[in-house]
Write a structure and sequence with these properties.
heterodimer; A: 238 residues; B: 463 residues; alpha/beta; Glutaredoxin; 4-stranded mixed β-sheet; 47% helix; 17% strand
C-alpha cells in the first residue's frame, strides 16, 4: 500500500529539510534548557537523597525530569509538522498527479488517501530519528530507562499517525495553501491541547495504554474513510 | 427528508465530539449549547455545504434501505465514539492527577521495592471525604498498579458515614486519621498517609513495614524549622528522616517528657529556668546542635561536664571542599553505634572544640573533638550540620541519622541510610566544557546539517 514514490517525494523536497532543521533547532534548544534546569534543580537536593533509590522515587532522575517534558514538546512540534508537510507535499498528489489515474479507475481512492496519510506519518516519524541523540547524550552521564523512552516514541508515532489521518480530510479541498496550513494547525493544535495531550501523556511517562491505541486506530480509519468519501464527492462535483 | 436526516446526524455527531472535548461535566450548559449549536449549524450548513452535501447524499443514499442503514451506522459510530472518548476521559483524569505528582505511574525503583520488600499483608484504606475533592478514582488507579507488584496489599475505599463501624475501628489505632486520607494497616503497626499519590502510599507501606519512630524537634527559641527549605532551614533533613522511618514532630519543651527522643537545632533565644529543668530531668535521648553561646545552654552543658572553646576550629588542608563551599570538613569519626552509618566526611560551616574528659567523642575536625556523647546527651558544637545547604554531603545525613537513631532506638537500627547500595553514587555532573559541546551539537550543528541538506536539495532540484 505504501510505496517508496510517496516517501521519495518528501525527501526530495527542500521544504522537508527546512521543517526538519527548525524542528531540530527547537527541540535541541528545549532539550538543552531542560538539561540546565535539571542540573540547577538537582543542586538544591543533597547528594544522599539524589544518589539513592528514594531520589529516583522523588523523580530526581534525568530521565524522569527531562524526557516527559521533552516529548510533550515534541508532540506540539509534530502536529505542526504534520500540518505543514501533509498539505504542502500531499495535496498536489491528491488533486493533481493521481487525478487522471483515478478517473481512469486504475487506482482505489481509499488506497490513495491511506498512502498519503501513511507517507506523511513515516516522514514525520523519520524526523524524530535524530532526536535519539538526546537520550544517547544523557545515557553517557547516567543510567537511562530506555523502556520509558521507547514507550514515549511509540506514543508520539501513534499521535503522528492519528494527526495525519485527521488532516487528510482537510487536504481534499481546494483551498489556498496558507489557509490550509493554518486550518490544519488550528484543528490539530486545539485537538492536541484539549484531548490528545492528556490522552498521550502517559506514554511519555512510560505507560502503554491499550485503550488509546484502539481509539487512535478507530479515529484514524474514521478520518481516512471520511476523506475518501469527501474526495469522491469533490471529484464528482468538480 | 434525506437531507434532514443527514443534517441531524452530522450535527449530532459533531456536537458529541465537541461536547466530550470541551464540556463533559455540565449537563444543562451542554443542552443549551446543543440548541445554539443546531441553529448555527443549520445556517452554516445552508450557506456553505449544501451543494457539497447534495452530491454527497447522492453517493450515500442511493436506495431507501441504504439510507436507513447508513443513518443507523453513522448514529452507532457517533455514539460508540462518544462513549469511547468519555471513558478514556475518566481514565485520563485519574492519570492526569497522578501525572501532576510528576509521574503517571509508579517508577521502576518503586516496582522493585514493592516486589522485593512488601510481601506482608497490608490493608490500604482510603477514607472517602464527605465533602471536598474525592480522589477515589485516583486512589483505585494507583492501588491497582501497586497491588500488581505487592501481592499482599489489599485496598478499599471506606465511606466514613455508611461504614461507620469499620471507620471507628480504624480510628482506634489511628486517632489522627481524617477524611480524604489513607490508612496503611499492617499486622504490627498502622500509619496515616495524608496525600493520595503513588509515592506517598509506597512511603506509607515502607513506614508501616519498617516502623515509625518519633523524634521531637523543639521549637520556640528561634531554632531551625523543619518546614523551611531555604539554605539555612532543616526541611530536607526532616524529609529524609521521614523516608527512613524517623518522624520529626514539632514539640514544646513543656511536653518534653512525652518524647522518646528530642532534637534541638541551634536555639537563638535563651531557655527559661523551667525549660532547663525539664532538659535536666529528661530521660530520653537528647541531641543538641549549637546554641552553646546562650548562657542557659552553657550552664546546662556545664552541669553535664561539657565546656566549649571560644575560638572556632580552623581548617587544615581541606582543599577543594573548603574553597568551593567555604565549609569545615569533619573527617574523623570514632567507633560508636551513632557513627556506624557514617561512610563519608561531613561538612559544616563552623565548629568549636569541646572539652569534656568524661565524654565519648564521636567526631572531630582538624583533630579537635566537635561532637561528643555524655549519658543521654549527644552534642555537636558547630552549626549547619542539618542545614539544607550542607545536607548535600552524604556524611552530614549519615551522621545525623546515626545520632538520632541511637537516641531514639538504641542499637536497633530502623533502616541504615546506605542499605540500598553505598557504591552506587548517581550524582549527575556535567562539566561546563561538556555542556558547551552538547549545546553546539544539539542546538547548532544538527539543525545546520539538515538546513544544508535542504539547500543542496533546492539547488539540485533547480539544476
Amino acid at each position: 500500500m505504501l510505496k517508496t514514490r510517496e516517501i521519495r517525494e518528501f525527501f526530495h523536497s527542500p521544504i522537508f529539510y527546512v521543517v526538519m532543521a527548525v524542528f531540530l533547532a527547537l527541540s535541541g534548544y528545549k532539550f538543552f534548557s531542560l538539561l540546565l534546569s535539571f542540573i540547577e534543580s538537582m543542586s538544591y537536593y543533597p547528594e544522599y537523597i539524589y544518589g539513592d533509590n528514594i531520589g529516583s522515587m522523588m523523580n530526581l532522575h534525568a530521565a524522569y525530569y527531562i524526557f516527559p517534558q521533552l516529548f510533550m514538546f515534541y508532540s506540539y512540534l509534530c502536529v505542526m509538522a504534520v500540518s505543514v508537510l501533509d498539505l504542502n507535499l500531499g495535496r498536489d498528489r491528491m488533486l493533481g498527479l493521481d487525478k487522471v489515474e483515478l478517473l481512469s479507475g486504475n487506482k482505489s481512492v481509499l488506497g490513495l488517501v491511506l498512502r498519503k496519510s501513511l507517507s506523511t506519518s513515516v516522514v514525520v516519524c523519520s524526523m524524530m530519528v535524530p532526536t535519539l541523540l538526546y537520550p544517547a547524550i544523557i545515557s553517557v552521564f547516567t543510567e537511562l530507562d530506555w523502556g520509558m523512552i521507547l514507550s514515549a516514541y511509540l506514543g508520539l508515532f501513534i499521535l503522528v499517525g492519528l494527526s495525519s489521518g485527521i488532516v487528510s480530510v482537510a487536504g481534499v479541498f481546494k483551498i489556498p495553501f496558507a489557509v490550509g496550513i493554518f486550518l490544519n494547525m488550528v484543528i490539530l493544535l486545539s485537538l492536541n491541547f484539549y484531548f490528545f495531550e492528556h490522552m498521550f501523556s502517559p506514554f511519555f511517562f512510560g505507560t502503554i495504554r491499550l485503550d488509546v491505541l484502539i481509539l487512535s486506530t478507530l479515529l484514524f480509519f474514521f478520518a481516512v474513510s471520511l476523506a475518501k468519501r469527501l474526495y469522491i464527492s469533490v471529484r464528482i462535483y468538480v | 427528508m434525506k437531507r434532514a436526516l443527514f443534517f441531524f446526524f452530522t450535527a449530532l455527531g459533531f456536537f458529541v465530539l465537541l461536547s466530550v472535548i470541551i464540556l463533559p461535566e455540565y449537563r444543562i450548559r451542554t443542552l443549551i449549547l446543543l440548541a445554539v449549536y443546531l441553529v448555527v449549524y443549520y445556517f452554516v450548513f445552508k450557506m456553505l455545504v449544501l451543494e457539497h452535501v447534495r452530491s454527497l447524499s447522492e453517493l450515500f443514499f442511493r436506495k431507501r434501505t441504504m439510507a436507513v442503514i447508513s443513518s443507523l451506522i453513522v448514529f452507532i459510530l457517533c455514539a460508540a465514539l462518544g462513549i469511547a472518548i468519555s471513558e478514556s476521559r475518566v481514565l485520563k483524569k485519574a492519570r492526569y492527577q497522578a501525572a501532576s505528582n510528576d509521574l503517571a505511574s509508579i517508577s521502576g525503583e518503586q516496582k522493585d521495592y514493592l516486589k522485593e520488600h512488601v510481601a506482608d499483608v497490608f490493608d490500604v484504606v482510603y477514607i472517602r471525604p464527605t465533602q471536598g475533592q474525592d480522589n477515589t478514582a485516583l486512589f483505585n488507579s494507583i492501588m491497582q498498579e501497586i497491588s500488581l507488584y505487592a501481592k499482599g496489599v489489599r485496598y478499599l475505599v471506606l465511606h466514613p458515614v455508611a461504614q461507620a463501624d469499620r471507620y471507628s475501628q480504624i480510628r482506634k489505632d489511628l486517632p489522627s486519621l481524617v477524611h480524604g486520607e489513607v490508612a496503611v494497616i499492617g499486622a504490627e503497626r498502622s500509619v496515616v498517609v495524608d496525600k493520595v499519590s503513588g509515592y506517598d502510599i509506597i512511603n506509607g507501606l515502607y513506614r508501616a513495614r519498617s516502623g515509625l519512630n518519633s523524634v521531637c524537634v523543639i521549637q520556640g527559641h528561634g531554632e531551625a524549622s523543619v518546614d523551611d527549605f531555604s539554605e539555612e532551614g532543616a526541611g530536607i533533613v526532616a524529609q529524609m528522616l521521614r523516608d527512613r522511618g524517623i518522624s520529626l514532630v514539632r514539640a514544646d519543651l513543656e511536653y518534653l517528657s512525652s518524647c522518646p527522643a528530642a532534637l534541638i537545632l541551634e536555639p537563638k533565644k535563651d531557655l527559661s529556668a523551667n525549660e532547663i529543668k525539664a532538659l535536666d530531668s529528661y530521660n530520653g535521648g537528647l541531641v543538641m546542635v549549637g546554641g552553646f553561646k546562650l548562657p542557659s545552654v552553657k550552664r546546662f552543658l556545664g552541669s553535664r561536664g561539657l565546656s566549649v572553646a571560644l575560638e572556632p576550629v580552623s581548617s587544615i588542608s581541606q582543599g577543594a571542599l573548603r574553597d568551593y563551599f567555604g565549609g569545615l570538613v569533619v573527617d574523623m569519626f570514632y567507633q560508636h553505634p551513632a557513627t556506624s552509618y557514617v561512610k563519608s566526611p561531613a561538612v559544616v560551616s563552623s565548629a568549636y572544640e569541646i572539652i569534656c574528659p568524661n565524654c565519648t567523642a564521636l567526631a572531630s575536625a582538624s583533630s579537635k573533638n566537635v561532637m561528643v556523647v555524655k549519658d543521654n546527651l549527644s552534642f555537636f558544637s558547630g552549626s549547619s550540620l542539618y542545614s539544607n545547604f550542607f545536607m548535600r554531603f552524604k556524611g552530614n545525613s549519615q551522621l545525623l541519622f546515626g545520632v538520632l537513631n541511637n537516641a531514639c532506638c538504641g542499637s536497633g537500627p530502623v533502616a541504615p541510610p546506605d542499605s540500598n547500595g553505598l557504591d552506587s553514587p548517581k550524582l549527575f555532573a556535567i562539566s561546563p566544557r561538556y555542556l558547551n559541546i552538547i549545546f553546539a551539537v544539539s542546538v547548532i550543528l544538527l539543525p545546520l546539517l539538515f538546513l544544508a541538506l535542504g539547500i543542496y536539495c533546492f539547488r539540485s532540484n533547480r539544476g
